[in-house]
């Protein structure tokens, strides 16, 4: 949200930022532009900062009244690579690979592996 707020305020009529999730306060963001934000929930401090800057906090039923077709809205989402399963991607055991192993026993010497490099496998 912090990165997009600069982009959203540049236009003359900024679109409504839509977040399917919670909007929380970020102390790193010093200046908040006057944004119209639609979300499932707002934290108390985030709502105060948005409305204090001249913005507006909307719920999804209010958004349906303001923009029934979804025109002039901008849907924000998280990183696609932020999932836990992405950590397991890649070939395990290859030099430079940091693929997370699928083991139930996490800890010292729990995982029995043959080798760390292709050249020195069990034969």
UniProtKB/TrEMBL annotation:
GO BP terms in the entry: translation
Domain Large ribosomal subunit protein uL15/eL18: 9-121
Biased amino acid composition, Basic residues: 113-123
Domain of life: Eukaryota
Single GO MF descriptor: structural constituent of ribosome
GO cellular component, one term: cytosolic large ribosomal subunit
Protein name: Large subunit ribosomal protein L18e
């Amino acid at each position: 949200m912090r990165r997009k707020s600069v982009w959203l305020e540049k236009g003359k009529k900024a679109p409504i930022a839509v977040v399917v999730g919670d909007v929380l306060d970020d102390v790193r963001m010093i200046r908040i532009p006057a944004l119209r934000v639609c979300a499932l929930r707002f934290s108390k401090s985030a709502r105060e900062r948005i409305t204090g800057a001249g913005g507006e906090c909307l719920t999804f039923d209010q958004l349906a009244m303001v923009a029934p077709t979804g025109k002039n809205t901008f849907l924000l989402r998280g990183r696609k690579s932020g999932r836990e399963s992405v950590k397991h991607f890649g070939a395990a055991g290859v030099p430079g690979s940091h693929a997370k192993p699928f083991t139930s026993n996490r800890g010292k010497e729990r995982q029995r592996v043959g080798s760390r490099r292709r050249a020195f496998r069990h034969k």
